[in-house]
Each structure stands twice: as structure tokens, then as C-alpha cells.
């Protein structure tokens, strides 16, 4: 049987196959749209990030207050609706990345998603501005809830924002990374700083939104605040179009998810085979025949040996390579790398569950506290600005001080590793949640005494 002799293919024929057959997947051709001056493309992307964050945070940061004070929803309904919407917003980047990698490319995905963004933001603005699209104001203790039509209009806009945001967020950072040449050491160093400034601009937009726009929404008019957010998305989209000629664009080169399924299918088809004792009997191609999405071959590792069966060459593979029945060692190793990341991914879920309290429980807790500060009333959602400000200052401090020291004394060109930084972040969230629990106990104690504590207790 062919399954029993798959790994006994003659060495000469095997080497001919390994070195002579090209991977049939589409490559990534770099397309330079006119002037590709590195200084302009990343700057436009950073500006887009700032305006996009400014716009969407004007909606998300104060969403609890809008649902309770304007649509008159209960706390349980608010928590459920916001959690569902937030979960959708976290899932849509996965879909956006899949489509961008397989078909559209990052640039087209951003264009299409920005249009969805604008439609969603415009719908939300109309819902908040036109009296017919929202329930009447409370009359004493009587607060009529929103009817089905009013909910449909508002949540349609909200979920269009979720899908638009997902497409933008999944493609904007990869597009920014494409602006830097990996073969140029100076550009590689600038690329590392670009990621830090990308995060800084995102938080700068959130900071401005959670202070200025949130205050406008609660003290002047919700329609005006949402209108400003919509204008920010429009400006981001316009600047992005104007800067098209400055971008380095890449054609889609296939989704990594497709590679995962190919390895799974191929290894399952050959599940009865024994893995060769020598790695040279596993299928691989020369560097110049690699899919250009892969810059180099990956060395074989001994973990997850069952997946190596996907790279076993059968006699039928000598005629024509089918990527669903024969995978390269590099493809298999890429999948193994994803499996090694699973513990980190699971830890990220726990972190996200805790962090999500910032948008729901944290705001509801602030509503039940004393918000007055002299003659000024602090919007509960504005406390989010202090978290954003802390992140911004930390990013600047890390990039200018800590990373510089780490490069000098640790001999690492990038400073602290990604895992080290993530570990510090997880430790910080543990301390933060423990502090929040103490504040909540203090708040309940003050309620029993009839003396509500200040919202500033939330700052730690």
C-alpha cells in the first residue's frame, strides 16, 4: 500500500521533487503607488489611528450612560448589550484579517470598512439627534423604554461600527508595517518605534474623546457629540484617500488560517504513516521557491510530531503537488508556532474579561458615587481618560528610557521582550482588579452610612 511506503520514496526522486516543485500559492507582489517616501506613509496612518480612536471612543466610552439615560435600559440589559457588542467588535478583526489576507489586501479592506464605519456613525448620530428615533425624556420616575424601531435604528448603526472597526483595526497595523523595508536596518529600527507610536496615537485619540467629547455629550447634546465623532471618521477616511499615492501596497498572499487547515487536513490523511526518522525525507522547497509571504524557511522541531505527517511525500505527490495533501516543513512549523502561542492567547482572554469592566461595571459604579468636584461635575466615563493618560506616558517612557537602557545593558536591540512586557501587564491588571474590589467595598459601606464617596476613589 502507498501509505506504508510513503516515506521510502527514493532519495534521488525525492530530492528532485523537493527542489523542483514550486509552491503554487500566490505571492505578495509589492506595488508602489507613486512616491513611497517612508516619512509620509506611516505619518498618514498614525493620523488615521488618532482620528479613528477619537471617533469610536466618543461612542463606546459613554455608551453605558446613553443606554441608561436616553434609551432607558436596565443595568442588566445594558451589561448584556454592551458585552455582546464588544465581543462582536473583538471578533470582526478576525474576519477582516481573513478577507484581507486572502482576497482584498489591507488597503482595500480599510477603504471598504471605513465606508461601513461612516454609515454606522451617521446612523448613530441621526438616532441621537432626531426626536422621532429615540424615546421621550423621563417624566419624574416614569422613563418610557425605547420601542423596537428606535432600538433597531440605534443598534444597526452600532453593529455597522463594529464591523467597520474590525476591518480597519485588522488591516491598519499590517499596512503600517508594510511601509518599512525589512532588508534596511534603519527602517527596521524605525518600524519598532512605529508600533509604539501607533499605540500612543490610539490612546491619544481615546484621551481626547473621553474628556472633551464625553463632556459635550453629557452637558451639551448627545447629537453634537456623536456628530463630532462622525466627523473624525470622515476626516480619517479623507486623509487616507489623499495619502494613497504614498503607500507601499502588497497584494494578498493567502491567509495563515488556510495554512492551518491545510496542515490539519494533510496530516489527517496521512495519520497511519510513520514519521521518517530523518528530516531530509520531509517535503521542503528552496528559499527562492518559497511563497514570498514567507521570508525564509523554518527549521524542523521535534514537538507535535504528528503534524509532521503533512510533509511526508507519497508516490502520488510526485506527479503534482496538492497543498491540501502535502505541506512544506515551513508550513508545519508555522502551525506549531501558533500552537505554542495558545497559552498566551488563553491568558489574553482572562485579561480582556477583566479589562472589559472599564466600559460597564466601572461606569455604573461611578454613577453611584459623588461626581461633584466643586462646581464641576465629572462625567463617570471620563475617568477612563486617566487610564489612557497613564498608558500614553508609559509608552513614551518605555520607548525613550527603558528600551534605551535595555539595549545598552542587555545587548537586546528591542529592549524588553514581548513576553516580559505582557507579564508586567498581567501583573498590573491583578493589582488593579484587587484595588477595584476594595473601592467597591468602601463604596457599599459609604452607601449604608448615607455618605457617598467621591468618584476620585476610582483613580487608583
TrEMBL record:
Family per record: Belongs to the major facilitator superfamily. Proton-dependent oligopeptide transporter (POT/PTR) (TC 2.A.17) family.
Gene label: LOC120258136
DNA repair is among the record's keywords: no
The keyword rRNA-binding is annotated on this UniProt entry: no
Location in the cell: Membrane
InterPro entries referenced in this protein's UniProt entry, alphabetically: MFS_trans_sf (IPR036259), POT_fam (IPR000109)
Transmembrane annotation, as ranges: 44-66, 78-98, 110-133, 153-173, 194-216, 222-242, 341-362, 382-401, 422-439
GO molecular function (one): transmembrane transporter activity
Protein name per Swiss-Prot or TrEMBL: Protein NRT1/ PTR FAMILY 8.3-like
SUPFAM superfamilies: MFS general substrate transporter
